[in-house]
Structure formats: C-alpha cells, structure tokens
Amino acid sequence: MKQKLLMFSFLLVLCSGSIAQQKTSVGDFGFLKGSWTMNTAKGRIVESWKISKDAGMDGISFSISNTGDSTLLETIKIYESAGSIYYEPTGNGAGNDSTVSFKLISAENGIFVFENRNHDFPQRISYQPQSASNVLARIEGTVNGKFRKIEFPYSREKLN
C-alpha cells in the first residue's frame, strides 16, 4: 500500500509540474510578430504586430482601399496583468474610439480565445496560427439576440 501511495504521489508531482509548464504566457503570442494581410472586395486589411518594450505585444490594424487610401482601424495590446493575459484594442473612428479589455479564457489546441461578456460586439476574439504564413482571427458574439461570427484569414505579408 505504501508503494502505491508513493507512486501516486510521484505521478501527482510530475503531472502538476507539466501543467505549470503549459501555462500560457505573453511570449506564446510571438507567432503574431510581423504583418498580416487579408484581401477584401474593397482592398485589404492589415494587422501589424511587434514585441513591446514591456514584453507584451503591440499591434495596429488598418485598411487599405483599392485606391490606396489607408484608414487606422484600431491599436491593440496583448499584455499580462495580475497573472492573466489580456487583449486590449482601442478603436479609431466615430462610435468606436474606446478601449476594451478581453481576458484570455482558453489556449487549447493552438487557439487563443479572449472574452469580455459585457462588451456589445464582439464578446470573443480568437487567434489560431495555422502555419508559419497563415493565421485565422475571429470575432464573435451576439447582436440583438443573434449569434454572429466574422473570420479574418490572414496571410503573412511578404517583405520585398
């Protein structure tokens, strides 16, 4: 019986160590570093990310029309605070100029999901790296009681 208890204790220590090693950190978002582009009927949307001075991630999202005009959509921060990771966009434009925090709620199967149930839309934002050159971003939530989801299939922008 003592051997079984000792073995169980040993396995418990091993498993708890591996769980701690699997804890998500801001460094896990390094795959976003660089510029990502998605073509649309009106032009393209670009997200550009860099590692910030405080070890988080800083991003900027803008659109470029087919005529070449660019419009800032939002600035974004991914950072850690009090043991949690947050995605914090600040919108740019009429009615969309506030900063909203979304807390990381899941990082399973390579999909990073942030949530703020109190936000009008979206309530969830996710990023899923699909390869070194592709990432799928998604916003989703309910609007007027109806579920809505918008996907942004980005490709890494090639440097010339």
Describe the structure.
By secondary structure, the chain is mainly β. It has one domain (24-156): Beta Barrel (Lipocalin). It is 12% helix and 54% strand. It contains one helix and ten strands; from the N terminus they run H-E-E-E-E-E-E-E-E-E-E. It has a ten-stranded antiparallel β-barrel. Mean pLDDT is 87; it is low at 1-21.
| CATH fold-type name | Lipocalin
Biggest beta-sheet profile: 10 strands, antiparallel, barrel
Strand content: over 45%
Question: SSE string, helix = H, strand = E?
Answer: HEEEEEEEEEE
Shape label: globular
Give the number of domains.
1
Side-by-side strand order of the widest sheet: 1-2-3-4-5-6-7-8-9-10
The CATH architecture assignment turns out to be Beta Barrel
- Give start-end ranges of low-pLDDT stretches: 1-21
Radius of gyration: 19 Å
* E-strand count: 10
Which CATH class is shown?
A: Mainly Beta
Structural class of the secondary elements?
Answer: mainly beta
How many DSSP helices?
Answer: 1
Name the helicity range.
10-25%
Distance between the termini: 67 Å
Report mean pLDDT, rounded to a whole number. Answer: 87
Write a concise synopsis of the structure shown.
The protein has one helix spanning 2-21; strands at residues 34-40, 43-51, 57-65, 70-81, 84-91, 102-108, 111-115, 124-131, 134-143, 146-156. The protein is mainly beta and 160 residues long.
